[in-house]
Design a protein that fits this description.
Length: 205
């Protein structure tokens, strides 16, 4: 039995964390065993890499390699065993974030990212990805009221414009997998959109 693998994407401040709790509750109410996890991070090793990558100065390629190193450990130690046990894995960010941030934001070429994604994922891919999309200025205003910026969140608006374009390109390449949610609306209005997608993709048996 293979479980479901679902990821959540969007620029910082899009409201992913706010929605994921309700999504986990939605699957639990159906009787699924839910594993909530995140990237960068998700395992002890990958959380150590997260602390480095979000706080230490480094070049873009080093940043990319650390993101994929953590992802490899996360897949091997947590995601793949959970899927093999039939669990529903909800992952706050996955490979689309590397394409958006290191590809779009930092400007690294797709020819560098694509082979890494193939090697590291070796066929494991989310079956559904929610892309919480909103203008970077709106996301920045939300973040300003909520928390102190880390090394990546401290980037300027043009970085987040490029990251947003990176998510849009990934969505265009995989329209069956990636569902765009208008994240500029109120939390309730965002939830209505999410719930409609869940109800359509996972009808009650
Ligand atoms: N739809 C929304 N409208 C307005 N504010 C929101 C909305 N969703 C989340 N927020 C607020 O914006 C901030 C960032 O939300 P969060 O869920 O942490 O985003 P993310 O995990 O995508 O970075 C938090 O202060 C949160 O309360
Ligand atoms: C997974 C991943 C995240 N990131 C970045 C996006 C975020 O700025 C940061 C941390 O992600 P996250 O914990 O999701 O931050 P937030 O809750 O603020 O949205 O890491 C990348 O640059 N590349 C990646 O591959």
């Amino acid at each position: 039995m293979t479980g479901r693998f679902i990821s959540f994407e969007g620029i910082d401040g899009a409201g992913k964390s706010t929605q994921i709790a309700s999504i986990a509750a939605w699957f639990r109410a159906r009787g699924d065993e839910v594993v909530l996890t995140r990237e960068p991070g998700g395992t002890a090793l990958a959380e150590q890499l997260r602390a480095l990558v979000l706080n230490q100065p480094m070049d873009a390629l080093t940043e990319l390699l650390l993101m994929f190193a953590g992802r490899r450990d996360h897949l091997q130690a947590l995601i793949q065993p959970a899927l093999a046990a039939g669990r529903t894995v909800l992952c706050d960010r996955f490979t689309d974030s590397s394409f958006a941030y290191q590809g779009g934001g930092r400007g690294l070429p797709l020819s560098m990212l694509e082979p890494l994604a193939d090697w590291v994922q070796a066929g494991t891919e989310p079956e559904l990805t929610f892309w919480f999309d909103l203008p970077p200025a709106v996301a920045a205003a939300r973040r300003a009221g909520a928390r102190e910026a880390d090394r990546i969140e401290a980037q300027q608006l043009d970085f987040f414009e490029r990251a947003r374009a990176g998510f849009a390109a990934r969505a265009a390449q995989a329209p069956q997998r990636v569902v765009r949610i208008d994240a500029s609306l109120s939390p309730d209005a965002v939830w209505q959109q999410v719930e409609a997608v869940l109800a359509q993709r996972y009808p009650a048996c």
